[in-house]
Amino acid sequence: MIGFIVVIFVVEVANSLFSHSLNAYGIVPRTTGGLIGIPLSPLLHGGFLHVQSNAVGLLALGGLAAISSGKRFPLVLVTITLVGGMGVWLVGRSATHVGASGLVFGFFGYLLVKGLVDRSILSVLVAIVVAGVFGLAILSGILPTRGYVSWEGHLCGLVAGGLVAMMMRKQRGSGRQGSNPGPGM
C-alpha cells in the first residue's frame, strides 16, 4: 500500500506541473473516452490535500485489506478498482471523477463483508473495529452532500468491495484434497 501511495503522490506532482490537465483521463460516465478513467482514476487527484486525505484511508483500510487477504490482495485491489470504476461509469453524474476514495470505500466494504462471510474471529473483530472507527465517515461519504465530491465513486467502491469479499470468501473445507475416504484408503 505504501508503494501505491507513493505512486499517487508522484502522479500528483506531475499533474500539478500540468495544471491538473491529466484529470481529463478520469472517469467520464457513459463516454467511450471515459472508459480509460476506470483504471487511471485512483491515480489522479484534485490536489495534494485530496491525495493526503485518500492516503490516510488507503494506509489504514488498504493496509488491513492487504494483511487480511495476503497473496490475493492485488486481485482485491484490481477488482475493486475495475468493478467500482465501471459502476461510476454506468451510473455517475456527468462530470470527471478522479481520486482513490473509491478504493478507500471499497476496502471498507471488503473488510466489513469479509467479517460477515468468513466468520472467523479475526475477520469479525476487524469488521467491528473498522465499522466503529470509519463507519460514520463512510456513511456521510456516500450521501450527495457536496457537488465536488464523487459520492457515486464512494458508493460504487463500497459496493464493489462488498462484492469482492463475497466472491473471495473462504470456502469451508475447500483446503482439503477431495473427500476423506476414511481409514485404510
UniProtKB/TrEMBL annotation:
The keyword NADP does not apply. It holds the Pfam family Rhomboid. The keyword GTP-binding does not apply. Its main location: membrane. It is found in: Membrane. Its EC number is 3.4.21.105. It catalyses: Cleaves type-1 transmembrane domains using a catalytic dyad composed of serine and histidine that are contributed by different transmembrane domains. Residues 40-170 form the Peptidase S54 rhomboid domain. The chain crosses the membrane at residues 43-66, 73-92, 98-117, 124-143, 149-168. It is an enzyme of class 3 (hydrolase). Keywords: Membrane, Transmembrane, Transmembrane helix. InterPro entries: Peptidase_S54_rhomboid_dom (IPR022764), Rhomboid-like_sf (IPR035952), Rhomboid_protease_S54 (IPR050925). GO terms for molecular function: serine-type endopeptidase activity. It is a multi-pass membrane protein. GO terms for cellular component: membrane. This is rhomboid protease. It comes from Geodia barretti.
